[in-house]
Design goal:
The chain has 550 residues and is mainly alpha-helical. It has 30 helices and no strands.
């Protein structure tokens, strides 16, 4: 019946070669029948037609054509796949061997053809295909040697097979090979070689890797720092719609360290990035308008962008800045009640508030509380603070900053923090640093460089063993706030903080191990640290554990 209808399918594609193949196929040539099936399966010069493709493949299969057997497997339902792949694989067809390995790995046809999951049989077929040069099969074999589940674990064999696959463009093999060179696992540690393989992954369009390459070049990871390369990779990620990459390009032009400073270009990229709230570009734009950097100072625009940045609950800095604008009537009508509402939102989220509760042993509240107990406590703290007690001075600062029976007054709060700090009180020193860094300043206190000043107070507290100051000092080094960016120094301070059980120090140090910032990248160490934070009920650490354990 099929043979009687052959003439109907040979007049669509108009070229001499097709006509010859079509004629030979009609006369029963198996190779030509296979090629006809391929034309229709791929829509190559003809209208794509799977039933027509199957018809030609079947004719070739009847004559034992291995390629047609494999091709027909692609078109059939999963219950018919395995047997067809097996027939072709046993004839040495490399693609069929790989696909049969996949069948055994994924249990295609189980319960119907009797084919059950069999990792050993799967590996056997992967290896046969790999030995014939099949890239994906080579990657699978590399994975088997790396994991050691089916064959004895052998990192050198894993590297050998991954390299074969990577050189043929296999993405996952390139990923593993890059990690091996970066970590010195099975090969001599070679960061330039690692970068080469990461670049090949990025060349395949992976915007995440493109962003990471930009980040590494901009931060000088492993001593490889290059502003032009950083911008190149960030822009490639941005071309894929990565708004964080757009913001990163803006940061490079804004900071003017890796390339010549260009505020106009920075603002252009920030505006491109604001379509994604998570990019952080709203906050950057808000700061530019608030401080008149690259644009005419405009508090109204600043408030607008700060508020848009607050879409994410974790934007406590933007919430604080909105509070400041309401307190001083900058870009909005002055409104102390509204200012307090924004401050309270920010203080509920900011990390050092929760740590301070543990350090000082106080019941932290964020609403105004004028209860009799608070009134009595305030009177006692005032008396002790006036006599020079640094603990009382810090507590009095807290009472003024949180309206505990006292009027809200950030100037007085800062003044009392400073009195404690000048006596060498670690918590007072830390609070002074926080006030300076986050613009919670006593009005008569002036510093030429606020970032360096905050750093100075954090360092004084950190050197006394204050775990939260150690974490904050680590943040300064990680982000380059008031000091040259230094991941190694950041990891050192996070480690000191984490050793004291500081939950935020644990999370920061876990992030360092996860991304290889300042320490050797270690998934195991990251999981261990996230687990310690998660055990204290931290949502972020619990989420990261789920991601890493997938």
């Amino acid at each position: 019946m099929e043979q009687n209808n052959l003439n109907n399918s040979c007049s669509i594609k108009n070229d001499t070669q097709f006509a010859i193949i079509c004629k030979n196929a009609e006369q029963g040539d198996a190779e030509s029948q296979y090629k006809m099936g391929k034309y229709y399966e791929d829509g190559d010069g003809v209208v794509q037609n799977y039933p027509e493709a199957i018809k030609w493949y079947r004719l070739a299969v009847q004559q034992g054509h291995a390629g047609a057997q494999c091709a027909l497997g692609r078109c059939y339902s999963q219950y018919e796949i395995a047997n067809l792949y097996r027939k072709a694989a046993e004839q040495g067809h490399v693609e069929a061997q790989y696909r049969l390995g996949e069948c055994y790995y994924n249990s295609y046809g189980e319960g119907n053809l009797g084919l059950k999951t069999d990792e050993y049989e799967s590996f056997k077929w992967y290896l046969r295909a790999a030995e014939q040069g099949h890239a994906k099969a080579q990657s699978k074999v590399g994975g088997a040697y790396y994991c050691g589940d089916v064959v004895e674990k052998n990192i050198h064999e894993a590297v050998k097979w991954y390299k074969k696959a990577a050189e043929q463009g296999d993405y996952w093999a390139q990923s593993h090979l890059a990690e091996f060179y970066e970590q010195g696992n099975g090969v001599e540690c070679d960061y330039h070689e690692a970068f080469k393989w990461y670049a090949k992954m990025a060349d395949q369009g992976d915007s995440w890797v493109q962003f990471d390459l930009g980040d590494w070049y901009s931060n000088g990871r492993y001593g490889i720092k290059d502003g032009k390369e950083a911008i190149k990779w960030f822009k490639r990620a941005a071309d894929s719609g990565d708004c964080c990459a757009m913001r990163a390009v803006g940061d490079i032009y804004y900071e003017g360290v890796l390339v010549d400073k260009d505020l106009k270009e920075a603002l252009k990229w920030y505006r491109m990035a604001i379509k994604d709230y998570e990019s952080g570009a709203h906050y950057k734009l808000a700061n530019c308008y608030y401080n008149g950097i690259g644009v005419e100072q405009d508090y109204s625009e600043a408030v607008k962008f700060y508020k848009e940045d607050c879409v994410f609950d974790t934007r406590h800095i933007s919430q604080r800045m909105v509070g400041i604008c309401y307190e001083y009537g900058r870009g909005v009508e002055q409104n102390f009640a509204e200012a307090m509402e924004w401050y309270n939102k920010a203080f509920r989220l900011v990390e050092y508030d929760e740590e301070l509760e543990k350090v000082l042993g106080i019941d932290y509240k964020f609403e105004c509380d004028n209860s009799e107990d608070y009134v009595k406590s305030a009177a006692q703290y005032k008396k002790a603070a006036a006599q020079g007690d640094p603990h009382a001075q810090v507590m009095l600062g807290l009472y003024y900053s949180r309206s505990y029976s006292l009027e809200f007054n950030r100037d007085k709060a800062f003044n009392w923090y400073m009195k404690a700090a000048e006596q060498g009180d670690a918590v007072g020193q830390r609070m002074v640093g926080i006030c300076i860094e986050h613009n919670l300043l006593y009005t008569s206190y002036v510093e030429e460089n606020k970032e360096e000043s905050a750093l100075k107070w954090y360092r004084l507290a950190a050197n006394q063993g204050d775990s939260e100051a150690q974490r904050l000092l680590g943040v300064c080094y990680e982000c380059g706030n008031g000091v040259p960016q230094d991941y190694v120094e950041a990891a050192k301070w996070y480690s000191l903080s984490a050793e004291q059980g500081n939950i935020y120090g644990l999370k920061r140090l876990a992030d360092c191990y996860r991304h290889g910032h300042g320490v050797k990248e270690s998934r195991t160490e990251a999981i261990k640290l996230y687990s310690k934070a998660a055990a204290q009920g931290d949502d972020y650490a619990q989420y990261q554990l789920k991601v890493l354990e997938l």
